[in-house]
Every structure is written in C-alpha cells, then in structure tokens.
Give the backbone structure.
Amino acid sequence: MITGTTRFTPILAHPCRHVRTPGVFNAECAARGIDMAMVPMDVAPERLEATVAALRGVENLAGMVVTIPHKAAVAALCDRLTGAAEMLGVCNIIRREADGSLTGAMFDGEGFVAGLRGQGYEPGGKSVLLAGAGGAAAGLAHALAGAGVARLTLANRSAAKAEALATALSAAFSGVTVDVGPMDPAGYDMAVNGTSLGMHAGDPLPFDPARLSPGTLVAEVVMQPDVTPLLAAAAARGCPTHKGLHMITAQVRLLVDFLL
Ligand SMILES: NC(=O)c1ccc[n+]([C@@H]2O[C@H](COP(=O)([O-])OP(=O)(O)OC[C@H]3O[C@@H](n4cnc5c(N)ncnc54)[C@H](OP(=O)(O)O)[C@@H]3O)[C@@H](O)[C@H]2O)c1
C-alpha cells in the first residue's frame, strides 16, 4: 500500500519497457514490511543530469536504481562512490543521504554471484568466459574475481573497454588470471553473456553455442525474455543454464538493504 509515508525509488532506464526490477523490488519490500516502492522512469540520456538533479531535492526519495544505458553516466553525477562502483566508475544504485547528497554503489556483480550460489553453483576456482565490458559486465567481472575464479577471460565488441577492465582487475586481484580473448566459449567451466544481446528479437548470439564444451554452465544477465535464444541453444546442446532472473532475485535484497 502506497501512503504519504512511503519512500520511493525510481528505476532510471531508457527505454524502460523491459525492466523487471520493480516487480521483485516491491515484492521484497512487501515481504519484509518495508514502506518503500519502486516505479519505472523512462529517462533519455540527454535528460539524465536534469532528472537526477531534480530527484535529489525530493525529501522522500530513498534512492534510484539505474540500468541500461545510464550506469556510467550516473556515476559521474554522484557525490561519492563506494566499493566496486568506486573502482569501476559505474553504479546501479544511488542512495539519497539525509543531507540530499548522493552515494553510488554497484551490486550487479554481487547479485550475479549470489544468484549462482543460490542455484548451487560455486564460481571459485572455475574458468570463466565473460562476454561484455559494459556496466553490468564490469560488475560481474569484479565480483567473479572477488569470488576467486581461477581464470577470467573478457571478450567485448569494443576491445579497448575489455583491455582497460582486465588491466584494472589484474591490479586489484593478483591471485586471478584476467585476460582478454575471443568470443569463444570452448573449454571454459562457465560462459556468461554480460552483454545486452538477447533483449531484442533478431539479436545475434553473443557467442557460438556450437563451440560450447559439454558441461559448461551458460549464464545470462538478460532477464527479458526469461529464456533467451542463447540459453535455449545451450540447453539444446545439453549444457546446464542459469537465467538472468536469478541475478536480480538475489540482488534485490542487497539493493533494498543499501537503501535502508
Ligand atoms: N539480471 C539482472 O539482474 C541484470 C542487472 C543489470 C543488467 N542486466 C542486463 O544486462 C544487460 C547489459 O546492461 P548494461 O547496463 O551492462 O549495458 P551497457 O553498459 O550499455 O553495456 C552493453 C554491453 O553489450 C554490448 N553490446 C551491445 N550491443 C552489442 C552488439 N550489437 N554486439 C556486440 N555487443 C553488444 C556492449 O558492447 P560495447 O562495449 O562494444 O558497446 C557492452 O559490452 C542488459 O540486458 C540489462 O538488462 C541484468
């Protein structure tokens, strides 16, 4: 029930039709008896700065959740960044402090790793191919390195972004081999789509399922559709799969906790 005491948290996206976070966020708040609610806000990139500036002045704003395409741009609008957001320069949540200042954080990676573990898969010690180097993929790479994967290979359309991310992670996680390679999942324990490919009908697959080794876990960040063409192709080859929905379900508790 939304009342005059409810604190609100928009999710800023463009477009916003695909977002599934409001449903799980509001269910989490309801289950825990927390008087907070999320609404989707479709904000074009050229209106992002003005929108954040206006929201900053709203007294009952708990914060903002941020998704594609705003994760990097919004980090520059925060007064401070914490944890992975500080290292990566991207954030997916902002908390409005009592003085109206904005603290940015990044939970995509922690949510992804928690989602894997919630499904009984431990990434520690595994070899991982991660497709993508955007906001979500950077968070995943950071959390997978923190979870102690043995080897992390980054593959991205814009190779320079993957190179820069690999350099930063290698410096921060000396026990993990981080490299940049081709979009070839052959021989990895886990192959992850961290790109936005699969959201739209007709998107190419991020990598060739025919190159998957038997037993490779194929994981998604894309959560709409529920079963992406990549997951369907991997399952057809007999590979275990892991949906994007697991990531947001595991992450939403962390997002709500950050705003309390
Ligand atoms: N399940 C969850 O909880 C969860 C949470 C957060 C995000 N997501 C999903 O994660 C996806 C990515 O979001 P994001 O915030 O990381 O977006 P982003 O920062 O815009 O990054 C997009 C990534 O996809 C790549 N890409 C886009 N179009 C491509 C194409 N045609 N060919 C090859 N690569 C392409 C980009 O490569 P370049 O660097 O070359 O542009 C980049 O690596 C979205 O689908 C989002 O909904 C899911």
Notes: The pocket of NAP is lined by residues 67-69, 71, 108, 111, 132-137, 156-158, 161, 195-197, 199, 221-223, 244, 247-248, 251 (CB under 6 Å).
